[in-house]
Amino acid sequence: MTTHADHHRRPTVDVPPPPPATSLRWAEGALEVIDQRELPHRLSWLRLRTVDEVIAAIRSLAVRGAPAIGLAGAFGVVLSARRHTRADGRTDEAAVRADADRLAAARPTAVNLARAVSRMLPHLSHGPDAVLLAALAAVEEDVAVNRRCARRAADLVEEMLPIGGLRILTHCNTGRLATAAVGTALGAVLELAGRGRIAEVLVDETRPLFQGSRLTAWELEEAGVPYRLLPDSAAASALAGGLADCVLVGADRIAANGDTANKIGTYGLALAAARHDVPFLVVAPESSWDHTLPDGSGIEVEERGADEVTSPGGRRVAPAGARVFNPAFDVTPHRFVTALVSEERLVRPGAPAPAPHEREAVTRP
Ligand code: MRU
């Protein structure tokens, strides 16, 4: 039966959603990345034409975030394959593999980098265009995987906290800038915002390089989501004071037992969240899991230069000659993690064994 309302209903057309904003792209024979060092002052694209330029961009954090550096590394292999392929179409595979080794070693902690680089190598024998297609496919895959991670994490948060406006605390930047697009933990925050569930995001400034205040705040501004910045040192008291309902972070490498390496400061946040009964969720793709490591003790933590601590933003804040401890990451033991969410699994490392009917959805590491 047709009703009056039906006559006035607009015809439904399948309009594809707009393409998500990306943080890197292939353009006219080069990799272009948003230069994250310039944010929040300027949105500019950096053009990378050589393997050395890609390595420098990864090391200097012009491009950063585990999935994004993996993709940059993959395009580094493309650039190398194009450079080392002769007019007769034959690729000097040994030369490309040597470049791939250098790319994979540009930063040691995020497993995504070495993994994405090595995924390009089987395509070398089919020529540089095949490697380019594989890198472009990896970008598409990253976007699809992040969408799934973000939705699944948002579903879990809604299941745990079904009513009211949510206050989410996050650390570092896990948004579209840290991935090809969409983001992981911040992707989940934006998904929750789209569902009308976010009251406020508490953004750790994330010293010493301020990925929270420079990048996450910039993304939240862009998305029109309410947020407040806080010094990292205020996070524990924010959790103690009941200012956050949940903590959402990303990961650079997750060991088989769920121990998680992420931006320095994550461990302290997890301890405070556990002490104050605030759920602590890690949102990361399967490509961040390293099943070769039984636990987090084998994860190499990158140590960065002293000047990042003694001269933030180029202004000296410590006596000349001050000695510095500047690890870029820390490892959170799995017992402090409420759940790890990927595109495929929900792992509750500290939880009792799941009931038989839950076994499909909930996996113990
Ligand atoms: O040193 P960075 O800025 O590359 O560190 C990034 C992080 O620690 C992120 O939390 C992690 O890579 C996940 S990004 C989706």
From TrEMBL:
Q: Which reaction does it catalyse?
A: 5-(methylsulfanyl)-D-ribulose 1-phosphate = 5-methylsulfanyl-2,3-dioxopentyl phosphate + H2O; 5-(methylsulfanyl)-alpha-D-ribose 1-phosphate = 5-(methylsulfanyl)-D-ribulose 1-phosphate
Sequence ranges of Basic residues compositional bias = 1-10
- Site (Transition state stabilizer) at 172
User: Which GO molecular function annotations are given, in alphabetical order?
Assistant: methylthioribulose 1-phosphate dehydratase activity; S-methyl-5-thioribose-1-phosphate isomerase activity; zinc ion binding
**What Enzyme Commission number(s) apply to this enzyme?**
5.3.1.23, 4.2.1.109
Task: State the UniProt keywords alphabetically.
Answer: Amino-acid biosynthesis, Isomerase, Lyase, Metal-binding, Methionine biosynthesis, Zinc
Any one cellular-component term (Gene Ontology):
cytoplasm
Q: Which cofactor does it need?
A: Zn(2+)
Cofactor binding note of this UniProt entry: Binds 1 zinc ion per subunit.
Transmembrane portions of the chain: none
The annotated active site, in chain numbering, is: 252
Q: Where is this region: Disordered?
A: 1-20, 348-365
Please give the pathway this protein is involved in: Amino-acid biosynthesis; L-methionine biosynthesis via salvage pathway; L-methionine from S-methyl-5-thio-alpha-D-ribose 1-phosphate: step 2/6; Amino-acid biosynthesis; L-methionine biosynthesis via salvage pathway; L-methionine from S-methyl-5-thio-alpha-D-ribose 1-phosphate: step 1/6
Query: Where does this protein hold substrate?
Result: 64-66, 107, 211, 262-263
Q: Which GO terms describe its biological process?
A: L-methionine salvage from methylthioadenosine
* Composition bias, Basic and acidic residues: 356-365
Q: What does this protein do?
A: Catalyzes the interconversion of methylthioribose-1-phosphate (MTR-1-P) into methylthioribulose-1-phosphate (MTRu-1-P).
Q: Which family does it belong to?
A: Belongs to the aldolase class II family. MtnB subfamily.
Its name, as the record gives it, is: Multifunctional fusion protein
- What gene codes for this chain? mtnA
